[in-house]
Amino acid sequence: RATIITSQLPLEHWHAWIGDASIADAILDRLLARSHRLALKGQSLRTQPPGASNTTDSPKTVG
User: Fold this and answer.
1) H helices of 1-63, where?
2) How far apart are CA 29 and CA 48, in angstroms?
3) Could you tell me the pTM of the whole model?
4) pLDDT, averaged in runs of 10, over the chain (63 residues)
5) How far is CA 18 from the centre of its chain?
6) Which of 8, 24, 40, 59 is close enough to 15 for a disulfide, judged by CB 3.0 to 4.6 Å?
7) Collapsed DSSP state (helix, strand, coil) of residue 56
8) Are 40 and 60 in contact, with CB atoms under 8 Å apart?
9) What CA–CA distances, in Å, run from 9 to 16, 23, 51, 60?
10) Rounded (5°) CA angle 38-44-48
11) Residue 54 in contact with residue 44, Cβ under 8 Å?
12) pLDDT number for residue 62
């Protein structure tokens, strides 16, 4: 089965955020061992003013 995990925290910051290098390594080893990472690019849809429509925008690209 697939599991999807999302995060706004870059991987290089996880050790500092978790606070324990051994635990961070263990978590990241298990999460990244057989993973596919997608990094989304482009402007955030959250920054649009309320009521703005994005129906005419082109689809966001991955990678």
Assistant:
1) 14-18, 21-32
2) 37
3) 0.53
4) 84 90 91 85 76 59 58
5) 16
6) 24
7) coil
8) yes
9) 11, 17, 28, 20
10) 160
11) no
12) 61
